[in-house]
Amino acid sequence: MYQRILVALENSMTDEALLVEIRELAKLTNAELLLVHVADGWVARNYERLKLAESEEMQRDREYLESTADRLREESYRVTSRLALGDPPHEILRVAEEEHCDLIAMTTHGHRLLGDLIHGSTITHVRHRAAVPILLVRAGNRKT
User: Fold this and answer.
1) Adjacent-strand bridge partners of 106
2) Is residue 144 part of a domain?
3) d(Cα 101, Cα 103) in Å, to the nearest integer?
4) Tens digits of per-residue pLDDT, 95-139?
5) Which CATH number covers residue 92?
6) What are phi and psi of 99, to 5 degrees?
7) Which of 47, 74, 91, 117 has its CA 20 to 30 A from that of 124?
8) Is residue 57 part of a domain?
């Protein structure tokens, strides 16, 4: 079914809700996980063009990705990670295509009205332009 799943991480507490669901799906499908975080600060957006040094934000994001990947590897999942730089929706779509992912997994926060306009833009952009299915997991509402 799925062979390679792009897991878009935010480096926030919402990631755990997504990882719970992705663990189950990866077990069922034996899929490889590609953890992606998009650093979108000023340095990240201008890193290549201006030949800048990596920012503290980018270093923290890279460490977070690697520690999350290591934790999943310890649980026997096949995992790679990638720190992308720039505009989150554009980078998620670009990496998904480059890495031949057949599913994109992301969290949604359940914002309403103005919050959707401010926070929902990444999901809206990705869902309208993705060439593969998207799994949206609502953060913080899982019943155990």
Assistant:
1) 136
2) no
3) 6
4) 999 999 999 999 987 555 455 555 557 888 899 999 999 999 998
5) 3.40.50.620
6) -95, 5
7) 47
8) yes
